[in-house]
Specification:
By secondary structure, this protein is an alpha/beta fold. It contains 20 helices and 27 strands. The protein binds 6-O-phosphono-alpha-D-glucopyranose.
Length: 626
Amino acid sequence: MCGIVGYAGFRNVSDFLLEGLHRLEYRGYDSAGIAVLSETGIDVRKRAGRVTELGMLIESQPIPGSVGIGHTRWATHGEPTDVNSHPHFGGSGEVAVVHNGVIENYDSLRKQLQQLGYVFRSQTDTEVAAHLLAHHLNEQIRLEGLGGSGEEGLDTDLCLKAVEATLARLKGTYGLAILFRECPGTLIAARCGSPLVIGIGENESFLASDASPLVGYTKEVVYLSDNEIAVLSQSALRIEHRHTGKVRPSIQTLSQVNSDIELNGFPHYMLKEIYEQPQTVENALRGRLDSEEATAVMGGLNLSAKELRRIDRIVLTACGTSWHAGLVGEYLLEEFARMPTEVEYASELRYRNPPMSDRTLVFAITQSGETADTLAAMRECKRKGHPTLAICNVVGSSIAREADGGIYLHAGPEIGVASTKAFTSQVTVLTLLALYFARMRHMSFPTGQRIIKQLRNMPEMIQKTLECHDKVREVADRYYHFNNYLYLGRLYNFPVALEGALKLKEISYIHAEGYPAAEMKHGPIALVDEQTPSVFIIPRGAIYSKVISNMEEIRARRGPVIAIACEGDLDVARIADEVIYVPEVEEYLQPLVCAIPLQLLSYHIALLRGCNVDRPRNLAKSVTVE
Ligand code: G6P
């Protein structure tokens, strides 16, 4: 979703802003722009389309200067047009603003501002903030009796007061970066619900909506909290809380390195991230397996063993792929730890009010740590007094910081919009969690040891699974032209079926539905014909023969069948049109291997259909609006 970059220092700011916007492209966007503050005023270049096109515009019409802001927009209010792109000017150009989030009361504010004579050029909610800033700035100038700015420009405090007065009138969420024409060398940022991170350099300050634009420029970062306002300049950083005053910045170290956000020879981030999975699963396991105690080590839960033993129910809440990982988690926690577990869509949980006792533990599962619905659901659970933990990838993200504790995935940045490595890491962490809870309750020492041994083996099993790539490519070649797909699996592979269908939908725009294989008889079977392939996830297991029967039912109706099966399974080969083999692992670990051919299948089908696999239409990597 929308991205922000900002800079105050000595570099040619357009170069930094453009590079930053490129690095934010993965979030999903439809237009881009920058504003540069110089002695002659504020200059803006913006346009609908890709950052590369903005780059061409800037090349033909350069804007020198060393303070500026930039934005990638994912349209919410108003279509993706040049005019609706950010930055937006306020008043008669005294302010320029970029904004992430949604200003919910923009309509009434717009009417009030129009009555005061402000002219709106765009349909965006953001322009309201821009005009309000100009309005309050002029109010402040009038109150302080200044007839305009002097040689030195405006006092920063005056601009800060205008920002505070503006924020007091906004309802909704925002991450804002603001330039004041008369305040040279300075940029102001404010946050409420939309993340912002500040980078501290030598004689320069950076701003971004996530850390990726800062990588390689600085390792010292400060994450802004809600209701904080930051004033950035070449030599100083000042942070104020809107209600409590001056804040001492808490400086953290950024661990990301350049190679994390580069393609490293892969044609797409999605493929790179699929191939990283042996390593990312290993990272999720590292330091968390205790063979001597036959349990998992969960350092960051911040709950004592006594408190954890009191828990009698777990609620997992998430969106999208993370929700699918949660479903696998439910099966694991119930089977291993005998712990009643529910998986809730965060967007529902935040407004539904299900009865939850004080013995309920909540986990928010999220790759980005910024998904608006997941954050809101988590806050709602915290408000009601439940211990609320996060299973999260992005260190320093809003959810990671607001949770009472949690477990990091350590998967490195996931750039491809369609989540791949985060899913397998989430499933790995949930397996560890199930083991941990189980060993606290009734699971025997030998069983715990057996699970640890199997988990240790998983990076190698995932590496072996990647050998199916050539076969997947062939299958994609033969099947990419179909327009409807069913994905079917049972038990641990039911969530995998949902995830496989979601992957195909997301990046190739093909209609696909995931279903529990047996449930297919109660509706979806009506869709089956020669034009509707079914992808069966059918590795060997307790109810393998039942899934074989479901497969026969599809074949009897002439539906093409693509099967994901265990190496050497000839029974499946006799029924299915295509078999993609994966290594045989314990049933509870099958999602970790079976997800991989499905990721690859959607990748190749999308490529063959000419789709942009890393940046699919309409989608965003981190959905920071409701
Ligand atoms: C978006 C992304 C999905 C992701 C979902 C939840 O829809 O496109 O890939 O699964 O958000 O994101 P989260 O960061 O909370 O896991």
